[in-house]
């Protein structure tokens, strides 16, 4: 084998290993990104039941104030907060239904783009849940 042929074999081998490790690195990055998406979900999923509880408490308080003109604005705030709790609850389940956990039909680049979009979506769901719960707690503690 000539030195030119050896050099070509070496170059082809290096290209093969570079591609192999590059693909593995992309898979590893995508797996880490997927785990990040799931971690955000797992962080706020335990709060789902609290959203329903707070919604009911908000509605009960609003109904108890029915007919009192002095508390009309506060009742509106209570009802709006109850709606926010319901919306945040629904958003979590909408997100969960559309989330794909298998990416066999996607390239690594498509998978990365998909997971980055999912991370943004689940972060929004998280923010909505935390905001709804915070607002509910604030309104329920208010003295009227």
Protein traits:
144 residues
Give your account of this protein's structure:
This protein has 144 residues and is mainly alpha-helical. 83% of the residues lie in helices and 0% in strands. The chain contains four helices and no strands. The mean pLDDT is 89.
- Name the poorly predicted regions: none
Specify the structural class: mainly alpha
Q: How would the global form be characterised?
A: rod-shaped
Extended strand count? 0
Order of helices and strands: HHHH
Helical percentage: over 70%
Radius of gyration: 26 Å
Short structural description:
Helix content is 83%, strand content 0%. The protein has 144 residues and is an all-alpha fold.
Topology readout:
Layout: H1 3-44, H2 48-64, H3 72-98, H4 108-141
Helix pairs in contact: 1-4, 2-3, 2-4, 3-4
